[in-house]
Structure formats: structure tokens, C-alpha cells
Amino acid sequence: MRGNLRPGTGRQGNAEDARRFTGYLAFEMARMSVEDGLVMQFHAGCYRNHNPLVYERFGADKGADLPIETEWVRNLRPITDAFGNDSRLTMLLFTMDETSYSRELAPLAGHYPALRLGPPWWFQDSLNGMARYFDQVMETAGLYNTIGFIDDTRAFVSIPARHDVWRRATANWLAGLVVRGLIDMGMLRKLRRPGERLGRRTFKLLKRAGAG
User: Fold this and answer.
1) Rounded-to-integer distance, Cα 116 and Cα 9, Å
2) At what angle are helices 159-179 and 194-202 packed, to 10 degrees?
3) Which helix or strand (DSSP H or E) is residue 170 part of?
4) Which listed site, 33, 193, 203, 207, has its alpha carbon 20 to 30 Å from 16?
């Protein structure tokens, strides 16, 4: 799995140099992921260490990380032009910018075979945030272009509770589809454990795990 990009500091350069270098690395990582089958992730929309007083006293990851606006359609264009239609690439998109869900991320994931949407992240990792995610994403992207729920938190004791909230939120969303007549019970049975199955499929673990 290829993760966040952090350009090195061995050479001096300006902001435009850093932007171009980051774009080059992202493109090359996508190209290599097509070749080796590793899953690629983008985590965007976070302004780290916004509060200097807290940051100076307690250090990184404690200094108020806040959401910022993101733009995906144009910024991902070089990658989607080259690899977006190639099913050998699996690229997961995560964001703290909730406003981009229906505007950009859901249409992108609904169109390009290579793209998948990550679950509600950070401030949206809550019951209300998950409900908004289902409402903004599913109609356009489709359930099978999302990846269920995965967790990369360092707060390990929170993992069972967070997954339990996701399962309950998913069950509530699916039940709402049945009540409104959008799906029937037969279709609902085919969607059993969507969070687990979507995650296994995304990370290419279905055959290995014997989950079908």
C-alpha cells in the first residue's frame, strides 16, 4: 500500500518546485501501482498543527489539525487521463473536506474504474458524519465504488467502537432503503456485511480470505 507523500528536504526549492515534485511522485506511484498491483491512497484536506501554542508545547499531531478545501477534478486529471480507466489500478480517495463528497469525489469514483472512495474520515467519523456521507455519496458513486470502513488510527482502544458505529450507521441506511421501497429484502440479503466484503475486495483479500 502506497501512502502519503512527503517530499524530502535534501535540496532547496520554492513552492512551485515542491508542487511539481509532489505531482511527479504521485503520477509515478500510480504508474508503479498499475504494474505491481499495490493499492494507492490519497489523504487530503488537512491543515496540520494550526495552533502554534499547542504545537510548541505538545508537538506534532497535537496542535489542532483542521479541514481545508480540496480540489480533485483538475488536480487528479493527469492520473485519471493516464490510468483512471485501467482496472489494474486501485486508488482510494480520503478527505477531511466534506464539501467535496457530492461535488467531486462521488462523480469521480462513479465514473473511473480505478477510483474508490474511502470512508468518512476524521471529523466525519461520527454517526452524523456517516449519515451525511451515505446521503451525499451513494446515489452518485454507488455502494461498490466505496470501500466500507477501514481504520488507521493510532488510538487503538477506539477501533472497536468506531467500527461498531459504522456497522450501525450502515444498517440504518440500508433499512431506510427497504422502508422507502428502493430495495427489497432479497436485495438486502445480498448486501450482507458490505463493510467487510468491500474492504476485502478493495485490498484484494477475498480469495486469500476465502470470502468469495
Assistant:
1) 31
2) 110
3) helix 159-179
4) 33
Among candidate residues 24, 115, 35, 136, the one with its CA nearest the CA of residue 73:
115
Longest dimension (CA), the chain: 61
Instruction: Tell me the per-residue pLDDT of 79-104, one tens digit each, with 9 for 90 and over.
Output: 999 999 999 999 999 999 999 999 99
Residues constituting the chain: 212
Contact, 112 vs 89, CB < 8 A?
A: no
Query: CB burial class (10 A; 0-12, 13-18, 19+) of residue 160?
Result: exposed
Question: What count of other Cβ atoms lies within 10 Å of the Cβ of residue 62?
Answer: 12
pLDDT digits (tens, 9 = 90+) for 32-45: 999 999 999 999 99
